């Protein structure tokens, strides 16, 4: 993790003191800071909470879409905001006990999924769902990640139309508890840790008061960059610029209907159903 972010002025990883470390004791650098969701502290230090939220999302999007190596436990106690750093503050990532190496095939397919979610490519979403082993439940992926139905006609920032809400309610009505359990059990381990990470990030970003569309914009940007890394490096910049233009046209506002921050997947399904 330290090596991946060695050139990022906003990220700090505690140093390990190997001469004081044994098989039983891990001795690391002590880093000063406050929990990332401590808005009172941030404002007291004249640090913009929304800027912190944006950087937090960028850091984890880079982990997932670019590095393919993820810190899977980003609750506020594991992320500090330090007033040290060239950017006015830095994010200190603690407790690397739950880290996950994403294989290259999964990383690229997850990048493709986000591109398909933003561009409303239902065929691609279905194809990727089959690749992930959840083909039967492909129509629920847009709901989970972007708050839209698989056949949405509205832009990604405009929320769900009344007709969409009715259709989704009908689909969810037909869901049994066994379906939800089956869906969760069919997800690959890479997917599960990403979902857990995303839930924790959503909760923190919400507490920091950032606009919810920032998450989609950030994920879309890094998913595009993650795909461009596989292509010719020279053409990657051009592809990224063209993709970002499409992204800007799609992202005006973020969804206001669905906010499942801090909730489990089962709770998410039920809340969508009962709040409509």
From TrEMBL:
InterPro entries given in the database record: ABC1_dom, Kinase-like_dom_sf, Mito_struct-func_regulator
Top-level taxon: Eukaryota
SUPFAM superfamilies named in the record: Protein kinase-like (PK-like)
Leader sequence residues: none
ABC1 atypical kinase-like domain sequence ranges: 2-127
Protein name: ABC1 atypical kinase-like domain-containing protein
């Amino acid at each position: 993790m330290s090596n991946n972010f060695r050139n990022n002025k906003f990220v700090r990883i505690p140093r390990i003191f190997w001469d004081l470390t044994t098989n039983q004791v891990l001795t690391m650098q002590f880093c000063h800071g406050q929990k990332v969701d401590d808005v009172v502290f941030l404002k007291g230090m004249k640090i913009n909470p929304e800027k912190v939220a944006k950087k937090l999302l960028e850091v984890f999007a880079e982990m997932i879409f670019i590095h393919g190596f993820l810190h899977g436990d980003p609750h506020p106690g594991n992320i500090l905001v330090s007033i040290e750093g060239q950017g006015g503050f830095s994010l200190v990532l603690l407790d690397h006990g739950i880290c996950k190496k994403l294989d290259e095939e999964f990383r690229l397919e997850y990048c493709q999924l986000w591109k398909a979610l933003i561009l409303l490519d239902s065929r691609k979403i279905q194809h990727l769902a089959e690749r992930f082993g959840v083909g039967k439940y492909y129509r629920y992926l847009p709901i989970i990640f972007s708050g839209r139905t698989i056949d949405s006609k509205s832009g990604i920032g405009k929320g769900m139309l009344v007709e969409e809400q009715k259709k989704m309610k009908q689909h969810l009505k037909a869901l049994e508890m066994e379906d939800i359990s089956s869906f969760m059990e069919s997800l690959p381990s890479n997917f599960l840790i990403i979902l857990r990470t995303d839930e924790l990030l959503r909760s923190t970003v919400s507490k920091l008061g950032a606009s919810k569309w920032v998450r989609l914009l950030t994920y879309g940007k890094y998913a595009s960059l993650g795909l461009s890394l596989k292509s010719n490096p020279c053409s990657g910049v051009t592809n990224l610029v063209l993709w970002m233009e499409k992204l800007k046209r799609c992202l005006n506002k973020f969804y206001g209907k669905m906010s499942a921050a801090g909730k489990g997947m089962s709770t998410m399904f039920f809340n969508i159903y009962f709040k409509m």
